[in-house]
Amino acid sequence: MDGSGEFDFIVVGAGSAGAVLAARLTESGRHRVLLLEAGGEDRHFWIHVPIGYGKLFTDPRVNWMYQTAPEPELNNRSIAQPRGKVLGGSSSINGLLYIRGQRQDFDHWRQLGNVGWSYEDVLPYFRRSEAQCRGGDELHGADGPLSVSDQVESHEICDAYIKACEEVGIPRNDDFNGATQEGAGYFQTTMRNGRRWSTARAYLKPARKRANLAVVTEAHTARVVFDGNAAVGVEYFHRGQLVTARARGEVILAAGAFGSPQLLQLSGLGPAALLRERGVPMLRDMPGVGEDLQDHLQARILYGVTRPITINDVVNRFDRRIAAGLKYFLFRKGPMAVSAGYAGGFFRTDPRLETPDVQSHLLLFSADKPGGALHPFPGMTASICQLRPESRGYVRIKSAEPREAPEIRLNYLATEGDRRTMVAGLRLLRRIMTAPALRPYVAEERDPGPAIESDAQWLDFVRARGTTIFHPTTSCRMGIDDRAVVDPELRVKGVGKLRVVDASVMPSVVSGNTNAATIMIAEKAAELMLRDAAARPVRAAAA
What we know:
Blueprint: E1 5-12, H1 18-26, E2 33-36, H2 45-48, H3 53-56, E3 66-67, E4 80-81, H4 103-111, H5 119-129, E5 130-132, E6 146-148, H6 156-167, E7 183-186, E8 191-192, E9 195-196, H7 199-207, E10 213-216, E11 219-227, E12 230-238, E13 241-253, H8 256-266, E14 269-270, H9 272-278, E15 284-285, E16 291-293, E17 297-305, H10 311-315, H11 318-331, E18 343-347, E19 358-363, E20 379-386, E21 393-396, E22 407-409, H12 416-433, E23 442-447, H13 455-465, E24 467-468, E25 498-500, H14 515-535
Parallel strand pairs: 1-2, 1-13, 2-10, 5-6, 13-25, 14-15
Antiparallel strand pairs: 3-4, 7-18, 8-9, 11-12, 12-13, 16-21, 17-20, 17-23, 17-24, 18-19, 19-20, 21-22
């Protein structure tokens, strides 16, 4: 099957959500599915080696390389926004952490009117996706496609960090996706046998053996095609040609928090004034398309370490690089099998809060920026990100040209609450990093350094150094209010046969890494679409 012709479902984007949809929608063999991916095959060596994520931040072969517009509250800096442009999408280039979010996140979605999205509602879809290495129970699945693994080995600095958290009153937690999220411990990861287990590996690779699935890579979707008020297909660029594919059933946008609102706007669904200004014929005035964008802001503290036991020390010595490579290729262990957060935790900056409001990551290396060259000294990084930001941004097309990146602005630190939480989180992080258990390991705080003490100084540090932790969401959010873009069944409001299924539909960003929740959304959406397809009249056979 090629990418022209007629299909039951057309899925735009083969990322964390799109690969799941393609797999689930083709399982029965009854439906012809076209999956379009603007990037290429996931053959890049560093995609599959866990530590390789650091080499993918700035690789345009697998990365959209988005940048925000200057952020007013971050000293007008433009912030890099890496997004996967490859089979598996961001699940092929992310830091591999498996975090679902808090029970209360999903109950809040339901409280906003989104029937079917409470924690009890979505838990079966988390379990359905999961192949938990520890086995299944009432909260975890063991038979799903997505491998969820423990870190391949412990590290003495991580053990000291967890103990330091206990010394300041934070409990140990060995399962952030269990009964409670709060505490400190090792992160679980989307790995299998020391290799990345993206949605391309977990879902799409076995599905591509099916005759009813067509996958077209290097296919840049230009717009959704409508007949009256119903989506009937898409136009996409492939090998220099503009190709049209037709959908008998539904078109599903799974292009992510930046790509899906961009495609809706290019297709005439968006704020009327924006579409007029950009020269796009308007199909429907939808003020919420591209608005309400959220992300987790991160601030990183860099430390010198007393002994050469960090990844810096491996990368900066030839003999240690060779040893690490051998250990990985022979045993799938060592520094090359490390995720983007080795250990970390979820903390409350105020004991009056019901649940954690910040997340911490401990990384056993240090660099001036994510993806930058590692420092020549033993180093590590500890970070804080705010889990429930109040600030809202937007995604807006710059022109009617589909291949021009949209304007992205997160408006980080736009509210006093966000500023206060980041400062409180950094103060708590410093308490942890100076606790007795870590004193044998911490040589010095190199950035920002001990001279930073006041709230104003900490806030200046965040403005100068703060960056994304790569969790953009909510730009096509689900809801029952007038500005919501999709309804609780992820159907785009006011038009037919068109859904959005990716992180953009979250009503609010989950309290943690977003990949697991995006996969859950796709699992649930596939079930909704198959139910609706079964209820549609059977087409008469062609004469």
